[in-house]
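Please, structure for the following, as tokens.
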Amino acid sequence: MAKLSPLMAAPLVIVAGFTVLAFVGLQRENPNELPSTLEGRAAPAVEVTPLGDKKPFKDSDLRGEGVKLVNFWASWCAPCRVEHPNLEKLTQQGITIYGVNYKDKPGNALKFLNDLGDPYAAIGADEAGRMALNWGVYGVPETYVIDGNGQILLRFAGPITERAMQNQILPAIEKAR
């Protein structure tokens, strides 16, 4: 019987590895859902700079009474425009939302808010993306539901559509209450 050289065995090992990874990935309940190691843990530090004359927020704003959302967004992000009316609906329902403007030009961000409305109780800029990195943000928009103890209950990646609001965001808010 001929002996298999290491060079010839490498492709077989690689294919077998990818097969195992694919099988494990398909076993997840929702393969489109991105995992978050922060759920159930304290929210990381708030590291924002002022955006125009808007009131920035800080760590202490994430603790205390009530449920809060932290929403990472940018003016150049088309899905952020899609979710914006739903953020305004949440604000009208009495939900406090803090905004983090991600890697954006201040003038563009302020124009976005001026044109579409400002649903944020307070907002700050994350020009270098440092806060987003610490929070585990994959891309914008991304929203975190925070309870009164400053714990992250839900990380929602993508635009908050009406369906997402009903199926994920509002149930997480109710759980936090």
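The first helix runs from residue 6 to 26. Residues 16 and 22 are 10 Å apart (CA to CA).
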